[in-house]
Amino acid sequence: MPELPEVETIRTQLEPRLVGRRLELVSILDTRLTRPLDPREVSAELEGARIEAVERRGKYLVLRLDSGSSLLVHLRMTGSFGFKPTSHERAVLELEGGERLVYRDVRRFGTWLVVDAVELEPYLSAKNGPEPLSARFTSAWLANQLSRRRAPLKAVLLDQRVVAGLGNIYADEALWRARLSPLRSAESVDPEDVPRLQRAIRAALRAGIARQGASLRDYATPDGVSGAMQEEFNVYGREGEPCPRCGTPIAKARVGGRGTWYCPRCQR
DNA sequence: ACCTCGTCCTGGTTGC
DNA sequence: TGCAACCAGGACGAGG
Question: In CATH, what number is assigned to the domain containing residue A70?
Answer without folding.
Answer: 3.20.190.10
